[in-house]
Amino acid sequence: MYYRVKVLAGLMILSIAFFPMISKVQADHHSNKEWVKKSNEYTQILIDIDKKYSPEFASNQGLASYDTLIGIPTVANIFARRKEMETAVAALKATRLLFLFF
Prior knowledge:
Blueprint: H1 2-31, H2 33-53, H3 55-60, H4 75-101
Helix pairs in contact: 2-4
């Protein structure tokens, strides 16, 4: 019986000690939602390129609209995908540099 009281008292002390930290994490979480939204937008750019040139991957991820499409691995398509990826990455790097200055 005494052991249970000690355990409960210890848990109460720990919860009181960590409560301010939990509140701060929750506040930080709410303030970072805008950053997460922007990050998702940037990631979507690269995902869209992948879906365009590799519809099998999109279909495998559960996107039914890509089920009937197949990728055509020609040299022209490989170069086109690479050029689009390079353009997107350059744009994303430029955006990152803008954030470093502001």
